[in-house]
Amino acid sequence: ISSVMITFKEDFGTQGRGGYFDQYGIIRDVMQNHLIQVLTLFAMEPPTKFAGAGSEISEHVRDEKVKVLRAFDAIKLDEVVLGQYLGNEKEPGYKEDSTVPDDSVTPTYALVVFRINNPRWDGVPFIMRAGKALNERKTEIRIQFKRPPASTYMFETDVPANELVVRVQPGEAIYMKTNVKEPGLSNDIVTTELDLSYTKRFKDTYAQLPDAYTRLILDTLRGDKSSFVRDDELRESWKVFTPLLKSIEDKKHELIPYEYGSRGPEQADELIMRVGFKYTGTYKWRP
């Protein structure tokens, strides 16, 4: 694995709740809680015991998540991009919300690069990005693989990296993006995917699936705590983010404006490529 990117994008702004959002910002709103859970579940080692149900089993899962958080290196300030959206012809900007202070320095977009200091993830950047008023709505984990040494000679051209993508929303799916030779006499390489779309594969039961809160209530009744945050995990997650939040409050970070409906600040894409993620933008998966 060369890099891992966790993305949370919303295609709408604060929609009148800017005053509430301004107290917290995008980092506290989704990164420190929701997205850090995604990261730790992905990066943790297999639990020493994971069979059956109940509190004993769930503690092994939570132990491994805490180990990941304790292995985080301090966030480098030059590996952070913060932004705040401006209005466009149709939608107002963040500060145009009457409930938002005119001098607000609250980020509505953030990209943070994490480094995990353990044998499995040494040298692999974890890129977390989240924002409001962007060009699309999606939440996903994108695992980008290293290119094999012989790939240039095999394909006679520079091809996109293979990727495994876990799409959380919309349209839950898991797909492998890979490069294949185009059928026929041509030697051209095309990008395609091997995919599992939940709505297609489980179409008979998908509409009847319980929502997330129903599942959590069931886990509570079963005594399964693996989907809940333990107090030491909460403390460790705040240790990761508190220095960054303090630097934002001290106005040590430039807040880059970006237009409503865009991909976000251009500097974010530049940072993504600088830390090793290869973005081509030439292929889009369609469920």
From TrEMBL:
Pfam family, any one: G6PD_C
What pathway annotation does it carry? Carbohydrate degradation
InterPro entries with a match to the protein in the record: G6P_DH, G6P_DH_C
One GO biological process this protein is involved in is: pentose-phosphate shunt, oxidative branch
- Keyword flag Nucleus: no
Q: Sorted alphabetically, which keywords does the UniProt record give?
A: Carbohydrate metabolism, NADP, Oxidoreductase
Q: Name one GO molecular function term.
A: NADP binding
Query: In what residue span(s) does the Glucose-6-phosphate dehydrogenase C-terminal domain sit?
Result: 1-279
Q: Answer whether the UniProt record assigns the keyword Mitochondrion to this protein.
A: no
EC? 1.1.1.49
Which named protein is this?
A: glucose-6-phosphate dehydrogenase (NADP(+))
Q: Which organism is it from?
A: Rhodosorus marinus
Q: What is the lineage of its organism?
A: Eukaryota, Rhodophyta, Stylonematophyceae, Stylonematales, Stylonemataceae
